Amino acid sequence: MLLSSAYCPPVEYFALMARDMTLSEDRVFPSKVHIEAKESFLKQTYRTRCMILGPRGTEMLQVPVVHSDNMRMDLVEVDHSTPWVTRTERALDTAYFSSAYFDYYRDGLFALLESGEKSLLKYNTAITLYLAECAGIWTRLSFTEDFTAPGTEEDDWRYLIAPKKNNGILAGMGLQKPYFQVFSKKFGFTPGLSMMDLLFNEGPESIKFVFSE
Questions:
Q1: Cα 179 to the chain's mean position, in Å?
Q2: Largest CA distance in the chain
Q3: pLDDT band at residue 6, thresholds of 50, 70 and 90?
Q4: What is the DSSP code (8-state) at residue 41?
Q5: 137-156 per-position pLDDT tens digit
């Protein structure tokens, strides 16, 4: 399976990560996922943004990057020159302070946000692995050594998971179902949000929304 790097990816991203995970009576066999590391950086994608649900509705959180002459994904650096991490943490506190499991995952997530990691690829990967672990998803991630041209990989999801794009992934996997959201009474159920939203609201039950045995 081939996925793009993503910042606090949406729920369907993790459903794909969990798809090939298998369980036996005495052990878990992790899925194997390749992350595209050699592509040119694409703006306005989940590579640097994610969506949460707050008191004013859907809100986008974004990682600023340093622009250079070579914007290959494994060379892109996070721009830590502004207090964007503080703003991100305040947005998460505001949106999820009353959710059932926010306090349980908050410290671990905020430690990664505050890590100061320069590589966008490594930054995204560390957060993704943390969220996967919290959700009970066992996966082995590796990075591509060369760019994979579109159409050459059958199990390629790099360009299908995008903001404002109904990809139908959860429906196709039989996993499209609502879960509890803090502001659902105000806005109704909102799909397409970061895995953080599912974890903060459903905690250990999150695995049921991204994995079907």
A1: 17
A2: 52
A3: very high
A4: P
A5: 999 999 999 999 988 988 99
Among 124, 146, 158, 154, residue whose Cα is nearest residue 8: 124
Question: What's the distance, Cα to Cα, between the start and end of the chain in Å?
Answer: 18
Q: By C-alpha distance, which of 1, 64, 63, 68 is closest to 40?
A: 68
pTM score, whole prediction: 0.95
Q: Are 11 and 137 in contact (CB under 8 A)?
A: no
Phi-psi region of 116 (alpha: psi -120 to 50; beta: other; left: phi over 0): left
H/E run at residue 95: helix 84-96
Q: Is residue 85 within 8 Å of residue 114, measured between CB atoms?
A: yes
Question: Could you please report the per-residue DSSP string of 79-139?
Answer: --SS-HHHHHHHHHHHHHTTSSSHHHHHHHHHHHHTS---BHHHHHHHHHHHHHHHHT--E
Which residues does 85 contact at the CB level (< 8 Å), separation at least 6? 113, 114
Cβ within 8 Å of residue 197, ≥6 positions away: 11, 52, 53, 96, 181
**Which of helix, strand or coil describes residue 26?**
coil
Cβ atoms of 154 and 24 closer than 8 Å = no
The Cα 138–Cα 132 span in angstroms is: 7
